[in-house]
Specification:
Blueprint lengths: L6 H14 L5 E5 L1 H4 L8 H4 L2 E5 L10 H6 L5 H10 L5 E4 L3 H12 L9 E7 L5 E5 L9 H17 L7 E5 L10 H11 L5 E6 L11 E3 L2 H23 L7 H18 L4 H4 L2 E4 L4 E4 L6 H16 L2 H12 L5
Parallel strand pairs: 1-2, 3-10, 5-8, 6-7, 6-8
Antiparallel strand pairs: 4-5, 4-9, 9-10
Helix pairs in contact: 1-12, 5-6, 7-8, 7-13
Length: about 325
Amino acid sequence: MGGDFGPCVTVPAALQALASNPALNIKLVGNPSDIQPHLNQCDSALLQRLQLIPAELMVANDAKPSQAIRNSRGTSMRIALELLKEGEAQACVSAGNTGALMGLAKMMLKPLDGIDRPALVTALPNQKGGKTLLLDLGANVECDSDMLVQFAVMGAVMAEEILQISNPRVALLNIGEEETKGLDNIQAAAAILREVQQINYIGYLEGNDLLTGETDVLVCDGFVGNVTLKTLEGVVRVFLSLLSSGKRKRLWWMKLISYWFKKSLSKRFGHLNPDRYNGACLLGLRSSVIKSHGAANQQAFTVAIEQAVQAVERQVPMQIAARLQAVLPKSE
């Protein structure tokens, strides 16, 4: 029910995901009167793997997280998380209120042992043709050194299990590569990571290395990560817009260069489009929760569902728990 468009996007996306994955079963949680019209023309074979769970209430997109959590009983978001907690589902995907989803998920599902707070992570395309995980994207505005180390561990596990990268490189996002640069919490996290043999820590990287492929996992606090991601998305949109909306009187050779450059950029970084990398995993919980962009279209929300399937198949929470015990045994 959440996001900018609600069932007119999420329901067709669910049906698309079902059509592409015969092993998938989906529970749609929300107001039946809003959802059912989008199922009337559905293939009966798909309906056999889809269940409608009634929820008359929903968390407003603009509600304050604290207020939304207090008044969450009976909402589609809370009922979906309850299904996950009770073992009736293996993952939850939502395009709803981010703060409320993070708060409710932490309260109901509980963080893994050794994790102070969950972190939002997404995979970005890089210049070398691979992907780089960036976390945290906004779940935690302020982070101490222990939390940054925990993010590094979780990011490394996700890089191994989801991106299939052996011995992934882990870096801390900083204002310089020198060891003396950065805030105290970043320097303290670096000191810890340098001593952890199970993590392939490569040091500090600056923001201009985000898309170069110099690292597989880039760790930062939620404030920096959120600003970084949204700035990147904005720059790409503006740049592509400028290339496609030139003056009509532009010389033919300038148009040709513009076309070539745009095509080259799209080929290299076209999957930077939010539709193609939509879905941020909320890492550190005992179950898999995926946060979709609120403005996601059908294709983008389908991608978020596919991310949830991957997290379940690769048993990401279990793998993170095992790694935490090996890397940070004091957390037991």
